[in-house]
Structures are given as structure tokens and as C-alpha cells.
């Protein structure tokens, strides 16, 4: 993530904490920096491992509470996928369109401007749109190839009986 984005999100967190007279604990800023340095979707475990690597041991409870705060501030988005919950820094990228393989669980971010345009143009009553997440489920090409190979193998066995 670009340094200017990191500075922006730090400012959002600083403003929020100052306005509410909350303490500006170094843990919260370390977690924010780590989230915005990962450049990928992550689980709470991934985040905890990453913080430990930089010698910043933070309790699970603190990580969960901080991530919940970041979601409230719209700095982090949560994806509930087949394999569990993954989080992602979202300050500079609010809309998400993910392609998910139902077999191996691989996740690929799609950039489909047609979908974004279509959603932009939808008129909703008494509702102001802010952002969207779209999950497309299917079978990735490697899983598809594996299935085809297995089917061929089964056919060959049948023919040889
Ligand atoms: Zn797959």
C-alpha cells in the first residue's frame, strides 16, 4: 500500500481516538500499519503472526477489538468465505468483486467496471449507496483440469475392465 494511503488511514484513526478521548495506544497503530503493509487478504492468525515477526506481541482480544474498530471506521473490510473469515485493507479500494473457487477456495479479485457501472446506475428508494462486495462462486481452471483428469482416468478403467 502506498505511503500516502498509510498516512491517511493513520490520520483517520488519530482523529477518531482524539475526538473520543481514547488513548492512542501504539498497539492500534502497529496493527493498522501491519494491515496496510500486508497487501493481501489475511486471517486474524496471519495478522498475529505478522505482528510477532516484527516483535510486536499483541493479544488476540486486542487484535479482534482493533479490527472491529477498523471495520467501523471503514479501514478494513471482512469477507466471510468457505474457509473462514478473511480481512482486507479497503481505504483506497472500497468496492470488491471476488471470484471464489468452491472446491479449493482460491480467491481472485476481479476488476469488472461493467458491474461497478451497473450498480452505480441502480436507483434505490430511501437508500444511499456507499460500496459493494460481490462474490462469484465457481470452479477454477486447475480444479476443473483435475476433475477432467479424474473423469478420464475413471473412463479408462471402465474401458479396460
Ligand atoms: Zn480451485
TrEMBL record:
<dbReference type="InterPro" id="IPR002481">
    <property type="entry name" value="FUR"/>
</dbReference>
<keyword id="KW-0862">Zinc</keyword>
<keyword id="KW-0804">Transcription</keyword>
<comment type="similarity">
    <text>Belongs to the Fur family.</text>
</comment>
<keyword id="KW-0238">DNA-binding</keyword>
<protein>
    <recommendedName>
        <fullName>Ferric uptake regulation protein</fullName>
    </recommendedName>
</protein>
<comment type="subunit">
    <text>Homodimer.</text>
</comment>
<keyword id="KW-0479">Metal-binding</keyword>
<keyword id="KW-0678">Repressor</keyword>
<dbReference type="InterPro" id="IPR036388">
    <property type="entry name" value="WH-like_DNA-bd_sf"/>
</dbReference>
<keyword id="KW-0963">Cytoplasm</keyword>
<dbReference type="InterPro" id="IPR043135">
    <property type="entry name" value="Fur_C"/>
</dbReference>
<dbReference type="InterPro" id="IPR036390">
    <property type="entry name" value="WH_DNA-bd_sf"/>
</dbReference>
<keyword id="KW-0805">Transcription regulation</keyword>
<dbReference type="Pfam" id="PF01475">
    <property type="entry name" value="FUR"/>
</dbReference>
Amino acid at each position: 500500500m502506498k505511503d500516502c494511503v498509510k498516512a491517511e488511514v493513520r490520520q483517520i484513526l488519530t482523529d477518531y481516538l482524539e475526538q473520543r478521548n481514547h488513548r492512542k495506544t501504539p498497539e492500534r497503530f502497529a496493527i493498522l500499519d501491519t494491515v496496510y503493509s500486508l497487501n493481501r487478504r489475511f486471517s486474524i492468525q496471519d495478522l498475529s503472526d505478522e505482528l510477532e515477526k516484527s516483535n510486536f506481541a499483541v493479544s488476540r482480544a486486542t487484535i479482534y477489538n482493533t479490527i472491529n474498530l477498523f471495520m467501523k471506521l471503514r479501514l478494513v473490510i471482512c469477507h466471510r468465505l468457505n474457509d473462514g473469515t478473511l480481512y482486507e485493507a479497503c481505504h483506497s479500494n472500497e468496492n470488491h468483486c471476488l471470484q471464489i473457487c468452491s472446491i479449493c477456495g482460491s480467491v481472485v479479485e476481479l476488476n469488472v467496471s461493467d458491474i461497478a457501472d451497473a450498480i452505480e446506475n441502480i436507483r434505490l428508494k430511501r437508500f444511499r449507496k456507499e460500496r459493494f462486495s460481490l462474490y462469484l462462486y465457481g470452479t477454477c481452471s486447475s480444479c476443473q483440469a483435475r476433475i477432467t483428469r479424474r473423469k478420464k482416468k475413471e473412463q479408462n478403467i471402465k474401458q479396460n475392465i
